[in-house]
Amino acid sequence: MAAATPHSPPPQQLSSPFLEYIRAPGGLDKVVLRGRRSCSVEIRLFGGQVTSWKNDHGEELLFVSSKAIKPPKPFRGGIPICFPQFGTQGNLEQHGFARNRFWAIDDNPPPLPVNPAIKAFVDLILKPSEDDLKMWPHSFEFRLRIALGAGGDLSLTSRIRNTNTDGRPFSYTFAYHTYFSVSDISEVRVEGLETMDYLDNMKGKERFTEQGDAIVFESEVDKVYLAAPSKVAIIDHDMRRTFVVTKEGLPDAVVWNPWDKKAKAMQDFGDSEYKHMLCVEPAAVEKPITLKPGEEWKGRLGLSAVPSSYCSGQLDPLKVLHG
Questions:
Q1: Using one digit for the tens of pLDDT, what is the confidence trace for 122-164?
Q2: What residues does each domain of the chain span?
Q3: Is 322 annotated as catalytic?
Q4: Which fold has domain 17-313?
Q5: Among 15, 21, 16, 20, CA closest to 7
Q6: Is 57 a catalytic residue?
Q7: Which of 42, 177, 191, 273 is catalytic?
Q8: How far apart are the C-alpha atoms of 176 and 156, rounded to whole Å?
Q9: What is the superkingdom listed in this entry's lineage (predicted)?
Q10: Is 143 annotated as a binding residue?
Q11: Which of 138, 76, 105 is nearest to 279 (CA)?
Q12: Is 76 annotated as a binding residue?
């Protein structure tokens, strides 16, 4: 069965009591995944983008700017998908075109391993348009499964296949550009990236080694951590909450906060909103991924939010980095 278009009747997959298809004007159709209590995830078909992730108390865990611009502009916040490039180069738009296109609901996806912990999920698909092929002359299928676990965990699994018929490989960079909602950026620390090498985008991508026992924030940060571990923790002292970020198939991790000067220069970002957000992004930036025709790549992002207290430089009692 062919993938549905964004404005066609929702497929059978969406008949579950844990899913809802919501039509909205201006290209804002979305799918809502529901879990226990008030746990939910919202996904906009424009960009295939998660724009809300709430825990079982109904608390929003992702940051979305109050000045976010509606389609056809990319949406500031949530989890934009950066493909086929992260950053700006060549004739492609910044962070690629996947976050600026309408995705379709995929009613006949290839099977993924059965996971009994998944409460609800939706499969999306993106294929290049004629205009996309003019900018980036490669045929592909990008399948994205967004899943909500029984305990409120969120996962995004991307599968990209080279469908070129002329024998050509293609290369791309990629990121899950995840915006976390935090109480106060000056009270947040990131653990798991200590001793890692990183490229500092504020210093001409010069390479350094992280020296601190954790990453803390006192000014603008824009770094690409190389060969980053599969698990990173974001500790929010004021909220007594720790985000645990896990990744597969993505070697790097981008850490970004624009701070005050850059925030004021961005049209779609509130002047003081930098205080309440932090991007930690599983990515493939330093070394592009290359696929030959018929080859498929898979990359996964897993997110959970757990209660935590902070004591003497260690998570207590949940040592989530080593659990």
A1: 999 999 999 999 999 999 999 999 999 988 999 999 999 999 9
A2: 17-313
A3: no
A4: Beta-galactosidase; Chain A, domain 5 (2.70.98)
A5: 21
A6: no
A7: 177
A8: 9
A9: Eukaryota
A10: no
A11: 76
A12: yes
